[in-house]
């Protein structure tokens, strides 16, 4: 490895000003000594007290305190030294590698240990029998700690010291810049996912589940009946531990967000040689630029036809939403229609500006809408009102909300184009398979639904072909052909009709399901004829479920 040719003082990029560095320096100098002192006292208190030292659930706290002690005694002094001088000393490759390794190792250790602390806390409360034997304590308590530490040490030594890559150090930056392995997409993504995203998701989800289960068991009286003397202890520490976990997770996630945005991915262009026009929203900050040439029609809209065609989804979604309100449909269908309209708005914003924020508004509503769509399909045959003892939601709703928040978080860090496209493809394919499965049920088997599903799938295939051809033949359309068919805009229009038919189909199946259950409860011996229990109407050439003859319920149920 070679030292960067740039001077340590005359860096090409300025990451700190003397004023900001001075403020940070005095903050660290003021806070570091008491932090190190308190950290040492806490470790001494847990180690010296025989009772606390022998209590299993304090071992995770002790491990976290040791890691933070190493951070305060190794990392913080190096940061203070850098802030004081404005450069990294000594200016050697080995010094930079050691600092990078220590920083990444200690940070990831806290993330993973916090995750394991949440897992172990859950096991202590609800599966305490796992730790009653010496073998159980070895398998479920001591070995995981050893595996975590050994794995992280070997991983970061391997990727920072051993992995062959061209390291360029900038001694004017903390850590001498980013480790060179972060420029390798696969390793960098694995590091970010395995040591930041995954621990965060497990930690948050287990905390949510833990709160719900504890409140539930406390309410029904089980927590007091089982392991009574442990219940009081956990009631004292429960909120305190959750607060500290949440606080650290917020701080760790903030660092992950900052780190990921300091090293953004390149933009994927389909016609980078042709897009030389400068418009109102220039330069593009999205991670993908589609085939339509930018700012050709007007300087205020980057991709004119892609933007305008997106409003077809807004119009059809708005019609479905208004009809749903008028016919007092269940909340799930109102959310689905509203999400459909918001997908169109987000798509118009994205193609009109080609900004990172616009891309977020384009892609995230797709995920939200698919979550609602999956909920509709997989709860199609459920006729009961969901009322949890604690909250008016059930597990599927909780999972959907958590999954949506997770994708929002992940997408705020990095717009993974291929990962997002693969994810959406799997969600769409899974939904189609479930839709076909539902149609095969006898009380959904009518010829109108059969034709709607066939057209629904044909439209999806046609839209996908348009989307693919637009990318593969982009240069041909813009260079050699006198006419660009704007196939990505047609993808929007075909996709709008496709989504419309999907929502109408699910409304029809839901209505038939409810009528079938009502029929079985009133006339169990008479066969149910689905073709006599539903009607469709055409409006602007598109099918809709006819609710004009239905008796409306006085209230909508959130299911």
UniProtKB/TrEMBL annotation:
Q: Which residues cross the membrane?
A: 25-48, 60-85, 97-119, 139-163, 192-216, 237-258, 308-326, 333-351, 357-377, 389-410, 416-439, 451-469, 489-512
Q: Tell me the enzyme class.
A: hydrolase
- List required co-factors: Zn(2+)
Provide the topology term for how it sits in the membrane. Multi-pass membrane protein
The answer to whether the entry has keyword Metal-binding is yes
- The UniProt record gives the binding positions of Ca(2+) as 289-290, 292, 294, 303
The entry's Zn(2+)-binding residues are 351, 488, 492
Question: Which Pfam families would you find in this protein's record?
Answer: Ceramidase
Compartment(s) where it occurs, according to its Swiss-Prot or TrEMBL record: Membrane
Q: Name one GO biological process term.
A: ceramide biosynthetic process
| Keyword Calcium found | yes
GO cellular component, as recorded:
endoplasmic reticulum membrane
* EC assignment: 3.5.1.23
Molecular function terms from GO = metal ion binding; N-acylsphingosine amidohydrolase activity
**Superkingdom of the source?**
Eukaryota
The family classification in the record reads: Belongs to the alkaline ceramidase family.
What protein name does the entry list? ceramidase
Which organism encodes this protein?
A: Adineta ricciae (Rotifer)
């Amino acid at each position: 490895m070679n030292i960067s040719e740039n001077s340590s003082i005359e860096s090409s990029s300025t990451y700190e000003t003397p004023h900001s560095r001075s403020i940070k320096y005095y903050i660290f100098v003021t806070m570091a000594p008491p932090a190190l002192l308190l950290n040492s006292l806490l470790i001494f208190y847990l180690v010296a007290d025989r009772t606390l030292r022998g209590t299993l659930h304090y071992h995770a706290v002790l491990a976290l305190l040791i890691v933070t002690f190493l951070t305060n005694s190794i990392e913080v002094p190096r940061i203070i030294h850098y802030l004081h001088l404005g450069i990294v000393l000594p200016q050697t490759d080995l010094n930079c590698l050691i600092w990078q390794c220590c920083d990444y190792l200690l940070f990831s250790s806290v993330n993973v240990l916090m995750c394991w602390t949440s897992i172990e806390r859950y096991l202590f409360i609800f599966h305490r029998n796992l730790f009653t034997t010496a073998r159980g304590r070895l398998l479920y308590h001591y070995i995981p700690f050893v595996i975590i530490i050994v794995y992280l040490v070997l991983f970061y030594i391997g990727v920072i010291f051993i992995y062959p890559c061209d390291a360029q150090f900038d001694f004017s930056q903390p850590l001498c810049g980013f480790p060179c392995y972060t420029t390798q997409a696969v390793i960098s993504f694995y590091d970010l996912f395995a040591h930041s995203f995954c621990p965060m998701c497990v930690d948050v989800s287990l905390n949510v589940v833990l709160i719900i289960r504890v409140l539930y068991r406390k309410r029904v009286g089980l927590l007091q009946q089982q392991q009574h003397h442990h219940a009081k202890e956990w009631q004292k520490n429960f909120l305190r531990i959750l607060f500290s976990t949440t606080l650290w997770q917020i701080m760790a996630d903030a660092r992950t967000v900052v780190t990921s945005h300091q090293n953004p991915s390149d933009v994927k262009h389909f016609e980078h040689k042709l897009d030389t026009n400068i418009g109102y929203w220039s330069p593009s900050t999205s991670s993908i630029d589609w085939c339509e040439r930018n700012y050709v029609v007007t300087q205020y809209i980057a991709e004119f036809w892609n933007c305008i065609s997106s409003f077809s989804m807004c119009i059809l979604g708005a019609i479905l939403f208004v009809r749903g309100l008028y016919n007092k449909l269940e909340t799930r269908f109102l959310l689905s229609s509203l999400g459909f309209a918001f997908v169109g708005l987000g798509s118009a914003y994205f193609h009109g500006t080609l900004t990172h924020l616009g891309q977020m508004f384009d892609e995230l509503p797709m995920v939200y809408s698919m979550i609602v769509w999956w909920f509709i399909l997989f709860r199609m045959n459920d006729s009961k009102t969901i009322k949890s003892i604690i909250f008016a939601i059930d597990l599927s709703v909780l999972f959907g909300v958590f999954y949506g928040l997770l994708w929002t978080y992940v997408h705020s860090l990095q717009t993974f184009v291929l990962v997002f496209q693969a994810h959406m493809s799997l969600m769409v394919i899974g939904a189609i398979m479930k839709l076909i499965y539902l149609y095969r049920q006898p009380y959904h088997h009518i010829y109108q639904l059969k034709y709607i599903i066939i057209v629904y799938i044909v439209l999806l295939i046609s839209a996908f072909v348009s989307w693919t051809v637009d990318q593969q033949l982009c240069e041909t359309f813009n260079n050699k052909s006198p006419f660009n068919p704007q196939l990505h805009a047609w993808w929007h229009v075909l996709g709008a009709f496709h989504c419309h038919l999907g929502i109408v189909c699910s409304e029809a199946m839901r209505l038939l399901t409810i009528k079938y259950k009502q029929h079985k409860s009133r006339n169990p011996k008479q066969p149910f004829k689905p073709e006599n229990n539903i009607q469709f109407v055409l409006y602007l050439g598109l099918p809709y479920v006819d609710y004009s003859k239905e008796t409306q319920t006085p209230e909508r149920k959130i299911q």
